[in-house]
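Aim 2 progress update. The chain analyzed this quarter is reproduced below.
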Amino acid sequence: MSATLQRLIERYPELAVCESDIQRAYETLYQCYRAGGKILLAGNGGSAADCEHIVGELMKGFMSPRALPAAERDKLRSLYGSEEGAYLADHLQGALPAIALSGHSALSTAFANDVAADMVFAQQVYGYGKPEDALVVFSTSGNSVNVLRAVQVAKSRGLATIGFTGRSGGKLKALADTTICVPYDVTPDIQERHLPIYHALCIMLEEAFFQ
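Predicted structure tokens:
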């Protein structure tokens, strides 16, 4: 067990039942990034906010600095000169590509109005998704139809799928490749435990790729 995962379980002992699934989720995401892939994220309401939160932790420095490699710094300086190139290099950070599918309001509202509301995430998975990518979804009930549709399309496209949900897991538990079912039944309680789990995953990924 990594030190980060151990600290998570020590702080939230009730999450010990999720330990193997959290580790499996980490390994899936690690392999995704090793293969040059990206993470797509989907959820509704507070879970949509969780998706945006994760993007914020992955696309920039979270717990440690992510200085650009020397070769990339040199390329910027050679293209734009020592002063401008240095500014760009000093103000860019290493990124782990992640896209929150809940953030595209024009596309989502147009697709919901013109085609089918339950397919707004699925359409984006179809458009963005590649076999080396992973889809991470949040549904406290495990039964959010638009989330399930996204997982269905992801699996048909060869993406790895990870679900965050509550105790029962709903339909998501059987559908996703890995499902983290926190042992709570009420939405606020479930979401409160999702946050430290995805923080731990982001820290573990950052440690793997930037230290």
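The chain has two domains: 3-60+95-210, 65-94. The domain at 3-60+95-210 is CATH 3.40.50.10490 (Rossmann fold). These observations will guide the mutagenesis experiments scheduled for the next reporting period.
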